[in-house]
Amino acid sequence: MAFFEGSGSAAGTSAFRTLKGLASSSGLAILLAISGGAATTPMPAHAQAYTFTKVEIEGTQRIEAATILSYLGIAQGEAVSAAQLNDGYQRLVGSGLFEDVQITPRGNVLVVKVREHPTINVVSVEGNRKVKDEVFTPLLKSQPRQVFNPATAEQDVQTIVEVYQAQGRLAARVTPKIIRRANNRVDLVFEVIEGKNTEIERLSFVGNRKFSDARLRRVLETKQAGILRALIQRDSYVPERIEFDKQVLKDFYQTRGYVDFRTTGVTSEFSRERDAFFITFQVQEGLQYRFGEITTLSEVEGVDPEEFHAAQNIKSGNVFSPAQLDNAIGRMERLAIRNGLDFIRVDPRVTRDERNQLLNIELVLTRGPRIIVERIDIEGNATTLDRVVRDQFRVVEGDPFNPREIREASERVRALGFFADAQVDARPGSAPDQVVIDVDVEEAPTGSLSLGGVYSLENGFGLNLAFTERNFLGRGQYLSASFQNSDDSLSFSFKFAEPAFLGRDLEFGFETYYQSTDQASSFYNTRSLAFRPSIAFPINEYSRLGLRVYADGTDITDVNADSSVLLQNDGARGRQIGGGFGLSYSYDTRRTGLDPNRGFLIQLDGDIGGLGADYQYARATALAQAQTRVWNDQVTLLATVEGGVLSSLNGASSRVTDRFRMGPSKLRGFATNGLGPRDLTATNEDTLGGNMFAVARLEAQFPLGLPEEYGITGGLFADAGSLWGLDDTLGGTIDDSAHLRSSIGASIFWDTPVGPLRFNYSKVLAKENYDEENNFELTISAQF
């Protein structure tokens, strides 16, 4: 067995070069030895010359003799010097066709003996546990049934090393070996010693005064190694990720008005054991600037700058944000398009007022170059249809070219979540006034199938089976089906959504579900079935409106004899099947807002239901949330106000399945169905729900001083609210008044690889005697 010694890319390179060097040296030594031994008398002091009448070639199998002669460059009967002979030898060696070359002059005959490189029989990677063979197969250039080439194998060694380096395994070593087989064939084996991840033991900053190290570390993609280092891959040292983090830091500071921020350097030091890195970012923050005077001018004849000035939404005195300036320019350019003004551009001209730390902005309307979009080329979408990508562009072939619109379209393509990578570029078209938009995407998995246990405070432990596909048949459609079986409930749901219905920015969808509950947490059983088609469309940048119709049916059975008369009456009414319609409105700046420290969410829902049943009702709910960060982004404050009302339209009484319920998800510190109107005259003291509810929640989330790589933060909260109102109080025996309930508590947030967990400990401050408490909770932390 022949083999190359060495490890890693450097060692692999040395091994192959050693082999070449030995071959070259031995050939030259033979040549010199023969030259020196050609005569027994001392050689004269002039260059030795040779004349060969014949060249014999030995050892060839696949390569023609003419090919060897062409590299050798020696003609029959021509006098050649020793230097020319050596040059021919070097050309043969450098051709890469031969494993060994020997040249021997024998009188007037030149004997050229070669050993061709073997044919590769098998290429394999051994010792790889963290990276599968399928990853390496398309990357390696050495392939079976090809001629073995040491230089190509050397490149493959480097490729394998780079794959491991991208995963933070800088200590990975690769040793190439060849195993000789019959008929001049070899097995090429790359033996891998993967080594451990080279972790980042400390991530620190120098020069930061406005934001702490802990706050800046939360911004970076790279993380310090913590107690979950076996599961978190972002704590491995990857040089490419460091470059990305430098840009992330710049965006973070500039969005907060630090326009002169820059990273002056990044140092990476090995630990003494050489198994970890210490990364230090040297930054220069600069001063924070605010928007100063905002003016609008027009250099285009006939265009009124006042109309465009009203379209921009920048307010003087606000902290400067490039995103807010870009948004204002986009608004103005879209207004120009709506007014039929093509090729209008807005040129922002910034003047600094360093004394007052202000940036005065002059928005100048100019006439841009007259360039037309010739076509849009989409490549790389093996599954996703072209139209799904094209729907993200607001321009088509023949429209004026707007660089801003193309940039925004590229962001929308990436935001689909269908692609691992998406690049959108413009290049010159077939004429000077035309451009071609190239969209190059790389498909990513969009479906998931999950099977496992679940836990919820409402339903306890259970089994969950779910299938989700976010890009069904490559059409950009959403499809999901789920089955859940818990201690006291069984449910099945199916959802479908088409985001571009009829080729417009109109989402069509429908949902159907079935749910049943038994007496594990109540004293009656229920069966519910519903079908709900809907449409939704944007109203403006932040607002969205949805319309829906539905048909549903509910049955209440097996009401316990010791339960409230109200529940027994509900069960006696039998199965109720009816229809209804409703609308939803949302105003959401959490994702698209311009202020990175603040976000708002308003949701309004209204329904008219029960049409065809014995109880027609109107239901309305509202939710408002606001979030802000204070103390240099260290503390997050969140406020939520939520309420709802259910009203009868035909004078009939609501049923328990129609009314609102209150659990720990709305008012912490109380058990599921632990508050609200309750029939104390019944043996079971059933909770009955209420026709109205209102609740306010305040909370703060802040660091606990633990290393942020642990992902553990703390919080405090205070909740207050009530659930009240019944259509029938059984002659006043049921108290349905709006009694105030309140609680305070503390939270621990833990951002784990399996999801964000939240632990709550609550202390109830105000309650009724019959209310049920729940002081400790474990939930999945909802993200604002």
Task: Tell me what you see in this structure.
The structure is a single chain. With 784 residues, the chain is an alpha+beta fold. Among the domains are: 86 residues, membrane protein fhac (Ubiquitin-like (UB roll), Roll); 78 residues, membrane protein fhac (Ubiquitin-like (UB roll)), CATH 3.10.20.310; 72 residues, Ubiquitin-like (UB roll) (Roll); 199 residues, membrane protein fhac: a member of the omp85/tpsb transporter family (Porin, Beta Barrel), CATH 2.40.160. The protein is built from twelve helices and 33 strands. The strands form seven sheets. It has a 16-stranded antiparallel sheet with strand order 18-19-20-21-22-23-24-25-26-27-28-29-30-31-32-33. The radius of gyration is 37 Å and the shape is elongated. The two termini are 63 Å apart. The N terminus is likely disordered.
As laid out across the biggest beta sheet, the strand order is: 18-19-20-21-22-23-24-25-26-27-28-29-30-31-32-33
What structural class do the secondary elements suggest?
alpha+beta
Work out the number of β strands: 33
Strand portion, in percent?
35-45%
Alpha plus pi helix count: 12
In CATH, the homologous superfamily of the domain at 582-780 goes by the name membrane protein fhac: a member of the omp85/tpsb transporter family
CATH architecture of the domain at 582-780: Beta Barrel
Parts with pLDDT < 50 across at least 5 consecutive residues? 1-46
Radius of gyration: 37 Å
Which fold name fills CATH's third level, the topology of the domain at 582-780?
Answer: Porin
Helix content: 10-25%
Domain POTRA: 50-117, 118-195, 371-444
Main location: membrane
GO cellular component, one term: cell outer membrane
Keywords: Cell outer membrane, Membrane, Repeat, Signal, Transmembrane, Transmembrane beta strand
